[in-house]
Amino acid sequence: MEEKTKIKLCGMMNPPDVITAAELEVDYVGFILSEGFRRTIPLGTFCELESYLHGSDVKRVGVFVNEPIANILEYYEEMLDIIQLHGKEDDTYIKNLRQYTDKPIIKAYKITSADDINCAVRSTADYVLLDSGTGTGRSFDHSLIRGIDRPYFLAGGLNADNVEEAINEYHPYAVDASSCLETDGKKDRNKMTEFVRNCRRVCYI
């Protein structure tokens, strides 16, 4: 039997977001920890939010965009299970980061062409995430990922209506959602629940 696709809910900003994710028993919860983005949360808020996951199996993912490695290590690394890089970080950056942490690393790639897929395939990160941008809520041309030969997180434009089809057709290692889980800019418990339910409706053989 094929392993079920894992679920990552990203852009957590408030306690109910994290509590709901824990109750839904998703695999990963993402926190935007670099400054300058709508869903960015400060260190104090992150410390509070990640505490709601203690005792659960949900992995805490810190999302950083061109962040100095020293900042990740000093303020966040001990409280994270996985480090996600969503900027222009290259393999040299990843190599340098690995000198100081053994946490798995996800490297995100904005996919606009087959060349972007080739870059993702060659990445030295533990996982790659294929997206249309940074929290745009829009999809990219999924036909580009046919034949990709490494596990990947599929993000960008997924929602409760299309995630089941995407999993059935492309069999990603994990799916990642943020914008589709919101109403008026805040996470919506009903939308989170529906998204997760539809992910788990996929039939595996």
Please name the defining characteristics of this protein.
about 200 residues; alpha/beta; TIM Barrel; 8-stranded parallel barrel; two-stranded antiparallel ribbon
Secondary-structure element order, N to C: EHEHEHEHEHEEHEEEH
Strand content: 15-25%
Number of domains: 1
For the largest beta-sheet, the strand count, sense and barrel status come to: 8 strands, parallel, barrel
Instruction: Assign the CATH architecture.
Output: Alpha-Beta Barrel
CATH level 3 topology:
TIM Barrel
Helix-and-strand structural type:
alpha/beta
Radius of gyration: 16 Å
CATH H-level superfamily title: Aldolase class I
User: How many H/I helical runs?
Assistant: 7
Shape: globular
Major sheet: arrangement of strands: 1-2-3-4-5-6-7-8
Q: State the end-to-end distance.
A: 5 Å
Determine the mean pLDDT: 92
CATH class: Alpha Beta
Percent of residues in helices comes to 25-40%
| Strand elements, count | 10
Low-confidence stretches: none
Question: Which SSEs are present, and which pair or pack?
Answer:
Layout: E1 6-9, H1 15-23, E2 28-32, H2 43-51, E3 59-64, H3 69-76, E4 82-85, H4 91-98, E5 105-110, H5 114-122, E6 127-131, E7 152-154, H6 163-170, E8 174-177, E9 182-183, E10 186-187, H7 189-199
Parallel strand pairs: 1-2, 1-8, 2-3, 3-4, 4-5, 5-6, 6-7, 7-8
Antiparallel strand pairs: 9-10
